[in-house]
Amino acid sequence: MIELVAMIFALFVALLAHELAHIALSRAYGVRVGGFRLSLLGATAWVCGLEKIKPWQRYAVYIAGPAANALLAAGALAAARFLYDANGFAQAVFLYNAVLSGFNLLPVLPLDGGRLVQLLLGNRIGILRANRVLAKTAPVVGGTLIVLGLVQAILYPWNLTLLCAGVYIKRKNKQLQPQLYWEFLKALQAKDKNIHRIKKIILPKNTTTTKALEYLRWDYFAHIYIGNGRCVPEDELTKAILRGARS
C-alpha cells in the first residue's frame, strides 16, 4: 500500500513539475496564465499571449516542461543510486519523469514536441500547410498508440501507459483544425514588426489573397509582392481576411 501511494505521489510530482515549468517561464516572459488543471490523466495549463513574445522565448516555453522532467529524472536516478531509496520513491520519480519527458517530445499535437514541430515546420512551408500536416498526423499517432496499448494491456495487465497516451492524444485532437486556424489568426494579429524579422515574399501575379496566406510564417513578418507589384504587408493581409470572416 505504501509503495502504491509513493508511485501515485511520484506521478503527481512529475505532472506538476512539467506544468509549473511552463507556467514559471511564461510568467517570466510576461505571458498571462489563464488556468491550471491536474489529474491522473494529465496536467494542463492555459497560457494566453504566447503569440506576443519573442520567437526564441516561445520555443523556450515549450521546451521548459520536458526539460524540467529530464532534470528531475536525473536527480532521482542519482538519489536512487547513491542514497537510501525508501519504498522505491526515487525510482518511481525517475521512471515517471523520464517517460513524461520523452512522451511530451513526440512530434504530435498537443504535446510540446508537436508545438515545436509546428513552429519549425511552419517557418519552412508556411503555418497553414504545417498545421494541415500535423492535423492529419495526430489521429494516426493516437490510433497507433491505442492499438499498441491494447497489446500492452494483454501482455502486462497493469500497464496501461500506451493506451492512456493514445486516448489522451485522440481526445485532445478532436476539432483540431478549427482550433489551429484560430491560433493562426491570433498569431498574425499579435505579430510585432519590432520583434519579428521582415521576410520578402514574391508570389505569382494570379495569386489570390487566400493563397497568399499559405506563405506566412511564425517567426517572420512578411512583405508580400504579388507579381513584383505593390508590397502588401502582412498586417494588411490579415485585416482583409478578418473583414471577410466577419462579413
Morphology call = elongated
Main sheet makeup? 3 strands, mixed
- String of helices and strands: HEEHHHHHHEHEEH
Number of strands: 5
> Biggest sheet, strands in spatial order?
3-4-5
How is this structure best described in words?
The chain is an alpha+beta fold and 247 residues long. Among the domains are: 1-105, no CATH class; 191-246, no CATH class. Helices cover 64% and strands 13% of the residues. It has helices at residues 2-28, 55-82, 89-104, 112-125, 127-155, 161-172, 176-190, 209-212, 234-246; strands at residues 32-39, 42-48, 197-203, 220-226, 231-233. The strands form two sheets. A three-stranded mixed β-sheet has the order 3-4-5. The longest helix is centred in the middle third of the chain and has 29 residues, at 127-155. It is elongated, with a radius of gyration of 21 Å. The termini are far apart.
